Amino acid sequence: MATIRSVRSRETLLSSLQGVFLSKGYEGATLTQLARVTGLGKASLYHHFPGGKAEMAQVLLRDAVAQLEQSAFARLKENRPAAERLRRFVDGFDAYVDRGRRHCLIAVLGQGSLGERHNEMIAEQFRDWQRRLAGVYEETGLKPKRAERSAQALLATLYGSLLTARLLGEPEQFQRAVKRQRKSLQDATA
Amino acid sequence: MATIRSVRSRETLLSSLQGVFLSKGYEGATLTQLARVTGLGKASLYHHFPGGKAEMAQVLLRDAVAQLEQSAFARLKENRPAAERLRRFVDGFDAYVDRGRRHCLIAVLGQGSLGERHNEMIAEQFRDWQRRLAGVYEETGLKPKRAERSAQALLATLYGSLLTARLLGEPEQFQRAVKRQRKSLQDATA
DNA sequence: GTCTATACACCGATAGAC
DNA sequence: GTCTATCGGTGTATAGAC
After folding, report:
1. B2-13: pLDDT as tens digits
2. Whole-prediction pTM value?
3. Which of A63, A156, A163, B95 could staple B161 via S-S, CB 3.0–4.6 A?
């Protein structure tokens, strides 16, 4: 079912769908909009996603987790000094959200009504990410408790500055927050 | 139109409606649900809010701004040392979101599709709040630039830890973040 | 794999009795 | 001020031709 061309097409298809869910949320995204941005008819969407809107969101969610993993969290495993890995993680997150101009689909769908099982999956994923971040903080010399706190604080700062920057309509605020984080990670291990 | 009893009733009415918008978002909240939680028929809701769902959200939004102002930001104007006012602001925010168990309606509706005018109103409100926070930080001895950064960082931390704590289903994470903020505000001016 | 046409439920909203 | 009944519109989803 997946020819070489269709693999690329599927990526652009998913990307178009993602745009709608990002800006409208799960409930706000309608099949009419989803069909329009993809250039397909509604019925054609059901060929690609027999489960309808719920399946689209599910696929996009897994996709977003994979992308964020690849863009950001994978860098925690590189063969570099711990502090440098943390800095590169921050940069990866920065890139994933397009420097504050785009929201994170996981956060968008995680607050919504996609069902308890999905929320639990997202929570599990976040717990894993926090653990891994804490592990790297430990490598920089922090005690476990402090490392855990730093990991939580880092994620909170990234998502929080993304949120407030978007509420304000000023992506620059997010960029400045990222810059500060980079700086503080630099200083901590200078 | 507003007898003494109806004033109290209106508060509980608004509170019920708020619960639906908080958990379902604007698009996700249906008139059927809104009617059910209030114990009224759909048609009766239109007596209280002739503008329908949009008016309910608008009223609730203004209400939330007023509540957050009263619970938290008003404390920045008290006759106390600046650092103590900041600490009391944090505690007020903590109380407003019920120690991390409840989301902030402004953040929920702000990301949504309530129209450009509302988003601009929310952005303006946040800018004002940031300015006022920065002003108090200046009073603690910080230079304007640093004060502005601290204000942005404080709001980002509060909203970010609220977001991540809720994604994780662990309000305790928010409470710990609040505790840390209090502590750092204590140390900064010990 | 995409389309047109359509089913059918539910949405927001209104009419009008009480 | 609340209700029942109902409207028109749109939402998700499907049938079936091509």
Report:
1. 454 567 689 999
2. 0.96
3. A156
